[in-house]
Amino acid sequence: MTSHTPDGDASSPFSRSAETLPPLKTGTSTTVDAEPRNAFDRFFEITRRGSTFGREIRGGIVTFVTMAYIVILNPLILGGTKDVVGHALHAAQIGAATGLTAGVMTILFGVIARLPFALAAGLGINSFLAVSVVGQVTWQEAMGLVVINGVLIVLFGATGIRTAIFHAVPQPLKAAITVGIGLFIAFIGFVDSGFVNRTQGGPPVQLGEGGSITSVPTLIFLLGVVVIGILVARKVPGGILIGIVATTVVALIAQAVLHLGPSFKDPNGWHMTIPQLPTSWVTIPDFGLVGQFDLFGAFGRIGALSATMLVFTLVFSNFFDAMGTMTGLAKNAGLAYKDGTFPRLRSAFVVEGFGAVAGGVTSTSSNTVYVDSASGIGEGARTGLASLVVGALFLLSMFVTPLTLVVPIEVGSAALVVVGAMMMAQIREIKFDKFAVALPAFLTIVTMPLTYSIANGIGVGFISWALINALSGRARKVHWLMWVVALGFALYFVRGPVEQLLGH
């Protein structure tokens, strides 16, 4: 097998041009030394990655079904908040722009990076904008900050800085990131399905409502976990997709009989979308938000220091959340090299950065790689062809938005839990008998689900790895870039007091 660099080039001083990387490490798929069937197969490396055309199509459909909720949720988050001058974004316009941006960026990612990852508006960043940013600036100015954040990430990716930081991360931490993401997406599934809920005055979370499962939607979620789990365990081709479709049919029947409402009105109701066949199948998208951003307006409104702090927060969340997600997805797909890198690494980082730029330009918030892509990978997706399928479906969703309401979040959550279990397998790569490795890895893993943030888990892992190894006589094991990033995360974690000192 020929030698590899992450992107096949050695132009950057940060790249390891002289190093020959080992063969692709097998995970849930196998690298096959076989002649491609045609130019299309050769371009996407379908046969070489042990996949088939059918698996890629199925995987793309499953990924879209799992993350289609963003077309509904993003308008709810961004459209439900007025900015500093009392202006609110129109929900229908957000929905159309969300599908447009996710579709275009996912297709570009599939063609350029050729990996089975899908992009859409990041939930962490859109919530940060709605909760913490637009109380200080207008929506146009907030999206201008998102564009600046994206430009910086593109520069980090293009110059090799992002790749250099990736190489500086020890392998046990990379494995811990994968495991943490598995727990994180499983926890997302538990929460979104109502299987886990917050409590008042007691433990932070509880099982169902009052410690028991009483709602039909949550029971349908459990049915989905069992059905999908059985199909995957029996290695049925298309098991995840078959399980999603079958459980959705059950949800449609249950809704037709019981006429349940949304959970905010009925505790026993559906938690995001009510499964029902739409009365209107086609809508005309409104792209009125495209281009509605003010690049430097926030600097004039709140001052350069405060605006810079907001950009800093966006960059750290975007930069490391996406890096951790791509690391975990590549390992789960069996596409990672032994050092944790993966094919076309730099291309992936650059395109993902442009997703942030595109999200600001279209007022949908930064678009980033979605951990939900793991559902399609679990279905067998291994190449950028699956991303093309996801992107095409996102573009189609602009016109058939009502169809995204058919699959309830409880069914998508079941797929996330199953895939989270698959990703836990990477824990075997962590040597827990060495405590200088075990504690940072453990903190990385548990912080992600407990704080609901991949970036937080990575930050805690970086800081604890650097401090514990340096102060236990292993300072040489800590790359200097780890210290730089750890310091940056330390500032990120205390950004609240810093902003207070700045008077904002």
Automatic annotation (TrEMBL):
Record keyword Transmembrane helix present: yes
Membrane topology, record value: Multi-pass membrane protein
Native species: Microbacterium capsulatum
Chief subcellular location: membrane
Residue ranges of the region described as Disordered: 1-32
Cell compartments where the protein resides: Endomembrane system
Family in the record: Belongs to the nucleobase:cation symporter-2 (NCS2) (TC 2.A.40) family. Azg-like subfamily.
PANTHER family for this protein: XANTHINE/URACIL PERMEASE C887.17-RELATED, XANTHINE_URACIL PERMEASE C887.17-RELATED
Protein name: NCS2 family permease
Superkingdom per UniProt: Bacteria
Transmembrane annotation, as ranges: 57-78, 90-110, 117-136, 142-161, 173-191, 211-233, 240-260, 295-316, 383-400, 406-425, 437-468, 480-498
Organism lineage: Bacteria, Bacillati, Actinomycetota, Actinomycetes, Micrococcales
